Amino acid sequence: AMLSLDFLDDVRRMNKRQLYYQVLNFGMIVSSALMIWKGLMVVTGSESPIVVVLSGSMEPAFHRGDLLFLTNRVEDPIRVGEIVVFRIEGREIPIVHRVLKIHEKHNGDVKFLTKGDNNAVDDRGLYKRGQHWLEKKDVVGRARGFVPYIGIVTILMNDYPKFKYAVLFLLGLFVLVHRE
Amino acid sequence: FRKNVEDFTGPRERSDLGFITFDITADILNEKSYLEIIFDWNVKQLFLYLSAEYSTKNNALNQVVLWDKIMLRGDNPRLFLKDMKSKYFFFDDGNGLKGNRNITLTLSWNVVPNAGILPLVTGSGHVSVPFPDTYETTKSY
């Protein structure tokens, strides 16, 4: 059946009070979501506790669209074999690769090298000019768990802005019209 | 499992480069029950890696991955490799390989599930290798 336009009649029937109530409801949902996100940031210690895999450089383990859950606790040392999400200075997009080498000094300073499982060579070519190593400050987090496919939605929303607007529009409509 | 290694160091302008050949014999088993194989319904693949760990004057801790392999669900979880050469150059950050008596080689793996936690497991059993006090001038590699 086609989407009926009865809901438009519903909206007209709502008086001002009910409309404000629904808007507040919507605001609450958004605030709760933000609070959960901030809470995750605190618990994991990472500014970006959930990231979407954007490239195929870690196949066959991770594919574009997989979702990764990160922690970035200062106490956790960086060790080879770990999957780290890092940012190269001056670049926005984080990269998800595996630690290949580490050299840690007596005072705890550590420098390390990374490589994508699916790449033939290590990441030195990706780093900033003159940069040979990554340091703890470049790390966004360590991948502790993952869920496949789910992140495709955010990739679609990024690549096709019309899709993003459509999703947001539908969400807004649903919340405003839903009678509780 | 056990590894047998022969090795010699090669000279480099600024840092030590080590050459190691090794054998690996391993059975990858489930953590909870040593009798079950690791590939249960939620294990998509294993990322295996052989790493060398050692200390030098410059650095308290060094770890270098020498070799890695992806083992997919369905592959045999037993390894029987002989005369393997390292996949990656074993460069030190400095000259800490010469005369280093204690390089520990360990086999570890990252369990990649279909969905869920990504644990890193270290195999039981490791081998300590010493590097000689002098550099090799001829490369018989």
TrEMBL record, chain A:
GO biological process: signal peptide processing
Keyword Protein transport: no
Transmembrane regions listed in the UniProt entry: 20-37
Record-linked CDD domains: S26_SPase_I (cd06530)
GO CC terms: signal peptidase complex
Annotated compartments: Endoplasmic reticulum membrane
UniProt keyword annotations, A-Z: Endoplasmic reticulum, Hydrolase, Membrane, Protease, Signal-anchor, Transmembrane, Transmembrane helix
Pfam families: Peptidase_S24
Biological classification of the source: Eukaryota, Metazoa, Chordata, Craniata, Vertebrata
Family: Belongs to the peptidase S26B family.
UniProt keyword Cell division, yes or no: no
PROSITE patterns cross-referenced by the UniProt entry: SPASE_I_1 (PS00501), SPASE_I_3 (PS00761)
Ranges where the Peptidase S24/S26A/S26B/S26C domain occurs: 37-124
Name of the featured protein: Signal peptidase complex catalytic subunit SEC11
Annotated membrane topology: Single-pass type II membrane protein
UniProt catalytic activity: Cleavage of hydrophobic, N-terminal signal or leader sequences from secreted and periplasmic proteins
Function: Catalytic component of the signal peptidase complex (SPC) which catalyzes the cleavage of N-terminal signal sequences from nascent proteins as they are translocated into the lumen of the endoplasmic reticulum. Specifically cleaves N-terminal signal peptides that contain a hydrophobic alpha-helix (h-region) shorter than 18-20 amino acids.
GO MF entries: serine-type endopeptidase activity; signal peptidase activity
Organism of provenance: Psilopogon haemacephalus
TrEMBL record, chain B:
Alphabetized InterPro entries for the sequence: SPC3
GO CC annotation terms, alphabetical: signal peptidase complex
Swiss-Prot/TrEMBL keywords: Endoplasmic reticulum, Membrane, Signal-anchor, Transmembrane, Transmembrane helix
Membrane topology: Single-pass type II membrane protein
Subcellular location, record wording: Endoplasmic reticulum membrane
Top-rank lineage group of the source organism: Eukaryota
An annotated GO BP: protein targeting to ER
Location, primary (coarse class): endoplasmic reticulum
Keyword Chloroplast: no
Keyword Transmembrane among UniProt keywords: yes
Function field: Essential component of the signal peptidase complex (SPC) which catalyzes the cleavage of N-terminal signal sequences from nascent proteins as they are translocated into the lumen of the endoplasmic reticulum. Essential for the SPC catalytic activity, possibly by stabilizing and positioning the active center of the complex close to the lumenal surface.
Family note: Belongs to the SPCS3 family.
PANTHER family membership: MICROSOMAL SIGNAL PEPTIDASE 23 KD SUBUNIT SPC22/23, SIGNAL PEPTIDASE COMPLEX SUBUNIT 3
Name the record gives this protein: Signal peptidase complex subunit 3
Organism from which the protein derives: Psilopogon haemacephalus (coppersmith barbet)
Gene, per the UniProt record: Spc22
